[in-house]
Amino acid sequence: MTKSELIQRLSEKNPHLYLRDVEKIVDTIFEEITRALASGDRVELRGFGAFSVKEREARTGRNPRTGEKVSVDAKRLPFFKTGKALREKLNEGHGSR
Predict the structure, then answer these.
(1) Around 9, how many Cα atoms within 13 Å sit in the side-chain half-sphere?
(2) pTM of the prediction?
(3) Fewer C-beta within 10 Å: the chain N or C terminus?
């Protein structure tokens, strides 16, 4: 599902809201999650999951084409861990573990 498809679906389920208002709400949610992660905060949406940032140390990597060693800079990467309710919903009917 793309962002525009999400906005369209939310708009259809909430006919009392203007499409532009639904778009602004979705944009604001994404902006706030991005802002929180950029400042190092964790964002938890109960039942859905948690967004956090993982730190990767600088390291020496390898170019897979040439085998040559290359320097890889340290970086921060977004990480998402699913919530229990989402995991259970995804695994309904797939047996228990």
Answers:
(1) 6
(2) 0.77
(3) C
